[in-house]
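General statements about sequence and structure are easier to judge against a single worked case. No coordinates are needed to read the tokens, only the vocabulary itself. The sequence in question and its structure tokens are set out directly beneath this paragraph.
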Amino acid sequence: MIRVLVADDQAMVRTGFGMIIGAQPDMEVVGEAADGVEAVEAARRLRPDVALFDIRMPKMDGLQALRLLAGPGVTDPIKVVVVTTFDLDEYVHQALRNGAAGFLLKDSGPALLVEAVRAAYSGDALISPSITVRLLEHLSQPAPTGDDGGLSPRELEVVRLIARGRTNAEIAAELFISVGTVKTHLGSVQSKISLRNRVEVAAWAWERRLVS
């Protein structure tokens, strides 16, 4: 079973997410939190496989809670998927840099929420396509255009598709390669540019205007 922690200051949201998670045969909600402090305490105590965090919560916001649980330098980080109504570019940027294992808008729907939990659990990461297209391209203070990090042409193709929110299977189909080859390219990319997951890879690509 995939053990999930849900943190949101709105009881109706927690209940809704709980119903979606509980309806899956391979998932269960092991805890809930109504604020950021409670979320961090519950995550450390329960060690869920995946945590779903809202950004705007009382006492401590979801971004600070994320940084404490999954940010740079954290030993044995928790896999946190940020699920929010989102309204500021810097929120996305900060979440990606603080180790988010996915980023969804609350209106993405049940199917994408479940997919994001499974992706995070398996070590992958999912970004809502609407966030990818509408928001990541507007990240502030982009790096110089044309900085490709020394990646090969094929690795750059994979990076651009990741930045468009494509899954490994979709990238494999589009480039006529196997899913295993996609994972190999992604691993090489992460090693070359020192990034931890595909969410950070997507942010890196948008910052450098590698995606038009």
